[in-house]
Amino acid sequence: MKKLLFIALTLLLSVAAFASGTIDGEIQKQPLNISAIVMFLIFVSGTLGITYWAAKRTKTAKDFYTAGGGITGLQNGMAIAGDYMSAASFLGISGLVYMAGYDGLIYSIGFLVGWPLILFLISERLRNLGKYTFADVAAYRLQQAPIRTLAAFGSIATVILYLIAQMVGAGKLIQLLFGLPYELAVVLVGILMIMYVTFGGMLATTWVQIIKAVLLLSGATFMALAVMSHFGFSLEAMFAAAVKVHPKHQAIMAPGGLVSDPVSAISLGIALMFGTAGLPHILMRFFTVADAKEARKSVFYATGFIGYFYILTFIIGFGAIIMVLNNPEYLDLAKQAISGGSPILGGKNMAAIHLSHAVGGNFFLGFISAVAFATILAVVSGLTLAGASAISHDLYANVFNKHGEVDEAKEMKVSKMATIGLGIVAIILGIAFEQQNIAFVVGLAFAIAASANFPVLFLSMFWSKLTTRGAVIGGSLGLATAVLLVILGPIVWVQIFGNETAIFPYKYPALFSVTVAFLGIWFFSITDNSDRAKVDREAFEAQDIRSQTGIGAEGASEH
Amino acid sequence: MTKEQVEQVKNNPKYQKLVKERSRFAWTLSIIMLVVYYSFILIIAFDPSLFGTRIGDGVMTVGIPVGIAIIFIAFILAGIYVRRANGEFDELTREVREELGDIA
Predict the structure, then answer these.
(1) For chains A and B, what is the number of CB pairs under 8 angstroms?
(2) Partner residue facing B78 (CB), from A259, A300, A552
(3) Residue A422 lies inside a defined structural domain of this protein
(4) CA A233, CA A215: separation in Å to the nearest integer?
(5) Cα→Cα distances A466→A55, A131, A237, A459, B24, Å
């Protein structure tokens, strides 16, 4: 049955891929890119092969959620990097460097510095306490149903917002790179992601991440080396050439307008740092390794890969300034005729893509395009698995089904159904949001992760006086504040709703919403005199011992 | 874990040593990372021209090596922690678990 469905979906997919060759007449910015499509098909067949292999090894719930807990530190570090280095950060940050120079580096650093903190304070405790989802940890000593409901709500909200951003990005990118229609691209991504996750679970998802991380890092390394060799490996020579041709000249070597006021700067920093530590698909990765030792190693490797990647994107952005900016081959001549300047084809986020053509010709352009597509696929798979786990493990098995034993086979079935459901939701939302301004979506996902997921998780591990009531009220307040401030802020209130001025003046709400969450949790915990509060507080010591020593922690499965 | 067992673990001198030293180490490194990052962010917020100051006669500015250095600092701090935690602290954890016998 499983095998049949697998074959049917594969067939459907190849039909979709074939059909794409015959559909045209849409508004397409680029002709069909054959080398990109061939390389992408190789990637897809390889990963589907892995999914088939993984499906045979995925029998229990533990296999499905955590790949049996047997992933090594290095593999998991690669997979974490694969989860984190999205197409948005590859194309977005190199595009930002291309436009504004130094400001791109400010973003990269913000995205990176959360990792050491996750390592020092969170990763091993998380591994020692949890089983499948971060809600296992947050609800360890607190009342299961309310905490898991809150955590699942925070997870699903984060996952869906992130999925929308990825889906819309995927549709546009594929339209541009491969010359396929938007809707077809979104449907393709949705079907592939459902296949990876439902059949191969965490094992397939992990290997898709690892392969994608290797491809992305090799491609980016090649581009950076090509740029550097052009200047005899002298950074000074490269910067000098960029300063000369960029319209902003020397200003690209210093902080520009990205973070203009102190409140925004600090707020962005908090969102990036704490948001990373509250992303459910990232937190889930810590349960795939055997013990705390491997969990630590995985963050160390991930920090290295991610940091290295950001240095590469910085060089790539500067390379694009030099090789793409004034090259008529990559300019949008129609747009230039109207608005002047030197706009590039497909917008600034295409800087890295055009650079790949400039340094490696059509073949390498095809490779990087396929890698960008693979990157999106890998990220959405990780997200979907995390969202499905929140539905099946937190809501189904521990909230709705609190009476009696949970049937593991049934929990897995619910998880697979949730995956298909999330996949369909992602496809529908991806198509619905095509024409929408989605600039706020990833920011909102990070704000929710930082203001609802992170404070509850963090205090559950570090603060003995935390109670169920405090966590539920404070976490909900953080979530509500984040959502409200994003709606009232400049992006949604002014750019989308078309109002004159924003009610809340800052783009990043995290400074305020995280503060509200922590204060709320603190206040409603210390004033909690219920019987449940007593239970919550008394259980802290035993929890702390387990989190410190790993006594009683989940091990890896036998096979 | 029963109340007696919790007391037994808490009174174990090696457990106390593990918790105390590891917490201190982890928080020290965290504070270093936070100070480094927020100094960077606050300079950008209050005095961005400082990072625009040129080094030597070329176009290179102070901000570039500082930014790259923060990426390296993040990686190095992570390495320092993993080295000590996976060596000394894990060894101590093993000893604690051995002494606790039945509980562990």
Answers:
(1) 164
(2) A300
(3) yes
(4) 23
(5) 41, 21, 56, 7, 22
What sign for the dihedral angle of Cα A41, A43, A47, A49? positive
Q: How many structural domains compose chain A?
A: 1
Answer yes or no: do A117 and B34 touch at CB < 8 A: yes
Domain residue extents for chain B: 14-100
The Cα A66–Cα A49 span in angstroms is 20
Rounded CA-CA distance A44/A57 in Å is 20
Q: What is the pTM of this model?
A: 0.91
User: In terms of pLDDT, which residue wins out, A1 or A336?
Assistant: A336
Q: From A170, A62, A135, A224, select the one nearest A431 (Cα to Cα).
A: A170
Indicate whether this complex's ipTM tops 0.90: yes
Can you read off the two tokens belonging to residue A216? Answer: 């992305």
Q: Using alpha carbons only, give the angle B54, B57, B58 rounded to the nearest 5 degrees.
A: 70
**Please, which pLDDT band fits residue A407 given cuts at 50, 70 and 90?**
confident
**Spatial separation of the C-alpha atoms in residues B82 and B97, rounded to whole Å:** 20
CB atoms within 10 A of CB A547: 23
Note whether B19 contacts A: Cβ–Cβ < 8 A.
yes
Q: Is the dihedral of CA B59, B64, B65, B68 positive or negative?
A: negative
Give the whole-angstrom CA distance, residue A414 versus residue A406. 12
3 state SS of A289: strand
Question: Which residue range forms the structural domain that includes residue A76?
Answer: 2-6+42-437
Rounded CA separation A153/A137 (Å): 15
Residue with tokens 């707020």, as numbered in its chain: A267
Region of residue A550 (phi > 0: left; psi between -120 and 50: alpha; otherwise: beta): left
> What does the alpha-carbon distance between residue B51 and residue B67 come to, in Å, rounded to a whole number?
9
Nearest CA in chain A to B100: A551
Q: Report the pLDDT averaged over residues A376-388.
A: 94
Residue-by-residue DSSP string for A175-202: HHHH---HHHHHHHHHHHHHHHHHHHHH
Cross-chain Cβ contact A116/B74 below 8 Å? yes
Whether B69 and chain A come into contact, CB under 8 Å, resolves to: no
What's the rounded Cα separation, in Å, for the pair B66 and B78?
18
Residue corresponding to tokens 């002014």: A494
Give the pLDDT of residue A17. 46
Provide φ and ψ at A449, rounded to 5°.
-60, -40
Q: Which two tokens stand for residue A184?
A: 């077809």
Q: A6 vs A52, A59, A376, B55, CA distance in Å?
A: 8, 16, 21, 60
**A169 part of a folded domain:** yes
The string of pLDDT tens digits covering residues A458-510 is: 999 999 999 999 999 999 999 999 999 989 988 888 888 888 888 998 888 99
Residue A248 DSSP class: T
Q: How many CB atoms lie within 10 A of CB A400?
A: 12
Number of helices (H), then strands (E), belonging to chain B: the values are: 5, 0
Q: Mark yes or no for CB contact B59/A239 under 8 Å.
A: yes
Q: How far apart are CA A312 and CA B68, in angstroms?
A: 11
The CATH number of whichever domain residue A299 belongs to comes to 1.20.1730.10
Nearest by CB to A250, which of B10, B59, B97?
Answer: B59
Asked if residue A286 belongs to a domain, the reply is: yes
**Is A399 a residue whose pLDDT tops 60?**
yes
